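Readers of this paper often ask what the protein records in our data store actually look like. The remainder of this section carries one protein's record, kept here as part of the documentation.

:::
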Amino acid sequence: MIVQLWNPQQAHQAMADLWPKIKASLMAGHRLVLECKQETRTNAENRLLHVLISEISEKIEWAGKKHDPETWKRLLVAAWSREQGLSVEILPALDGKGVDIVPIRTSKLTKSECADLITYIQAWAASHDM
């Protein structure tokens, strides 16, 4: 069950409504996992993110050539991650030929992180005459 929480009063009521179900399940011997996390990006933010990345892939050459949107996504997310102080793994390639960048997954970004990434991409694009 997913419950979206917007304010303390609504959250309190949602928890009070859930408690009887939680208690009954625990009393019946079931183990539960209760997870609270910040909401992730919206579909509209996801679409905007991919539109921006696609535009960059169509218009900008990097390292002497154009790259597909997936490559640009990796490059942009890795650069944004470093700017945010987040780790970006650079691992030896599985086939032993070079290295691969493994940035965080954008599907795991919170709503505010996604908004910040979008702003970063827009600023990057503007600084590269887009």
